Amino acid sequence: MNQSNQQVALVTGSSRGVGAxxxxxxxxxGVRVCVNYFQNEEKANSVVKEIHSKGWExxxxxxxxxxxxxxxSMIQKIESKYGRLDxxxxxxxxxxxxxxxxxYVSIETVKWDDFVGQFNGVIQGVVNTxxxxxxxxxxxxxxxxxxxxxxxxxxxxxxxYDYTTAKxxxxxxxxxxxxxxxxxxxxxxxxxxxxLSITDASASTTKEVFxxxxxxxxLRKVTTVEDFAxxxxxxxxxxxxxxxxxSISVDGGLTMP
Length: 257
Description:
α1 links the parallel β1 (8-11) and β2. The protein has a single domain (8-194, 225-250), classed as NAD(P)-binding Rossmann-like Domain (Rossmann fold, 3-Layer(aba) Sandwich). It has helices spanning 17-28, 41-53, 68-82, 112-140, 161-181, 207-216, 225-236; strands spanning 8-11, 32-37, 58-62, 87-90, 143-150, 186-193, 247-250. By secondary structure, it is an alpha/beta fold. α4 (112-140) packs parallel to α5 (161-181). It has a 7-stranded parallel sheet with strand order 3-2-1-4-5-6-7, with helices on both faces. The radius of gyration is 18 Å and the shape is globular.
């Protein structure tokens, strides 16, 4: 992409996994990055250190995205440091175990509190980062918000009721934001990933499962975190300037919404 180094991005939950890969790839392409974390300070600093070692620019910031005051402080820090904010990648996820035998996989045993916990983390986080950054993006008459979801919203092969329902609601939120904020030059899109190779969530996934997914995927491969990060790069690039309100699956064609 080779964008000007004036571009600035916030990547929430970027101390590891998908978020870390996105932060590194954006930095590699000239974007200055705020590496947000909630608990993993050491890992967040490691991401920043790696970015700095290659001559790129980033800093880490601890903030709970469900806490509006903490998010506002983080956005203020970004603005005071760089004077602008162009991109928000809403990647932060409440702690979750993808366990097909858990209580939240059956409508008979899932609790309403399970839903509330996921809604608070997934939806409230996006609402807070959007609210906190809106004045900056409106002033710029430009901004891009990329929300990260899951392809389970299109094909719930495992019925993670709380998680998938919250991520489905994120599609509605994305579209509503796109409609309201388009007049300010702000684009809002959603990228849905599948089982990625390899993240903390998929670390215990067996080779047989990965092989099966590869065999039934049109591209005949499991999507990696690096593959997924490239899709984020596409959405922050000028090539996507006419795209907003869209929900796209990045899983090699496994799901086709």
